[in-house]
Amino acid sequence: MATSGTYVTEVPLKGTAEKHYKRWKSENHVFPDAIGHHIQNVTVHEGEHDSHGSIRSWNYTWGIHLLYFFSFFSSQHISFIYDYRNLFNELIHVCEDGKEEMFKEKREVDDENLTLTLRGLEGHVMEQLKVYDVIYQFIPKTEDTCACKITIVWEKRNDDSPEPSTYMKFVKSLVADMDHHVNKA
Predict the structure, then answer these.
(1) Contact 99, 62 (CB under 8 A)
(2) E-state strands within 17-144
(3) Where does the signal sequence lie (predicted)?
(4) Regions in the chain scoring below 70 on pLDDT
């Protein structure tokens, strides 16, 4: 049996849980304009944007954050980068800057618990994983703040495939980057 696991994290957000949930549930069509550096296109194949059981595909680019990271370094930091080149080379190897991928998912909607579950059907991540489910739960914290609890449930197709920890980092950055857009809407 191949390795499986669960990753869980929380992202603090400004604004109400209901407002964030609505954007993630019903308004995926705005993601390319809001966070185009991550999401280039969202296509609904079956159902409506906000319907339980709908099937959609996401065209996205991940790993781009390392390009931004390196752009902040000036020539005075070159020795720092040189000293830590093995670490940076490993990060680049794991994160493949600017990699364009596609993810097709079936959506489960739980309005009562402000939870969306995206069950992986096809796409690049599914080439290495047998199971890839991303669960977003928007949890009220105060009157004007909330958190998005992100849970990724995964199972490798075989033990030679790497664990999908970089996908958790990517999903976490999606949620954090959408925070600003949700609040200015």
Answers:
(1) yes
(2) 39-46, 55-62, 99-110, 115-123, 129-142
(3) none
(4) 1, 63-97, 185
